[in-house]
Fold this sequence. Notes:
Distance between the termini: 65 Å
Shape: globular
CATH class of the largest domain: Alpha Beta
CATH architecture of the largest domain: 3-Layer(aba) Sandwich
Number of helices: 10
Order of helices and strands: EEEEEEHHHHHEHEHEHEEHEEHEEE
CATH superfamily of the largest domain: Vaccinia Virus protein VP39
CATH topology of the largest domain: Rossmann fold
Number of strands: 16
Helix content: 25-40%
Radius of gyration: 26 Å
Largest sheet: 7 strands, mixed
Structural class: alpha/beta
Amino acid sequence: MELRCLGLYRSCCPHTLLNCTSCVSFTKNKGSETTIGDYQYRLTPADVDQRLILGVADTMVEDQPYCLFVVERVTGASSKMDNGEISLSDREFEAVRNKVYDLAGISMSDAKRTLVVSRLSKIIRRLNLDTFTAYLEHLERGASADDIQEFINALTTNLTRFFREDHHFDHLNDYIGKIVNDPANPNKSRLRLWSAGCSTGQEPYTIALSLLAAHPKLKSWDFKILATDIDTDVVEKAKAGIYKAGDLSGLSPERVRLFDRDGAGNVRIPDHARSVVTFKSLNLMEPWPMRGPFDAIFCRNVAIYFNKPTQEKMFTRMGELLAAGAFLYIGHSENLNSVADKFKLVGKTVYQNKLGASARSAA
């Protein structure tokens, strides 16, 4: 029998969870395992509802001499909890973090523990396994390439929308306008852009729709957008180019008119915009098949999942693929301080490749 302690509650107010780290009986911080008597406990926040009040901690916590401790009882060989999720030990969580870092360069904080349990429990149950340890052993020894990809897909976050951080698209439109109408290069008709971490496609399609609307000349150009993501599921969804009408909520009427309707309550990316976007799955930690040069790269809210050395390596590689003076667009909580020698900040989360930075300047 396994007992997992889910927290401490004031005896005078049993519905108030204490994030206790000072209780004598519980010798480790919230979220870690400890042993009391013959049983092992885990200190994690939880609601008192549907939990078993097992006993009283005979100690002082925040001036309350008697505090209830609440546990979840797990019986039998299975580690499945009452809600269908699989229990996750500290050792297993660390092994999951190491695995996703090795495969995808993703650094997971302690705050991602709930996400790991929620998303991977479904896979573990489907494989008829009982524990995270068994699942990790499966990934190491008997997993197919699809199994490994499913593990990565489950732990990636895909949050995006059309015209997100629209100041980037205003800058891009001005910059591309100077390229398209540059009298010094009347014969130039090639344009290449890359959306790295494209998720379900809203970002690359926004690029295509806004540029084609602002610069009709591009319809006769060799204009292509590469859109990549490590998550194969979202790449397949992006290829379809079909979204719920609600995904356009908050857009101006002018922007809404850029989309087609399919008659079933959905919106569709017009063919002329879909035709310039190519979707591919790509792990940014592996070799990149493209050679560039790119006139712009969007890599927004991707680096936040990497540690500093991985960020520096990735941005350096992107700088090598950017054309002279071309631009890199990143997320609002990101920066390029680690590669400041290679990029120049020219706007809000807009960086210019310092190689030939005076050329094509849109600053």
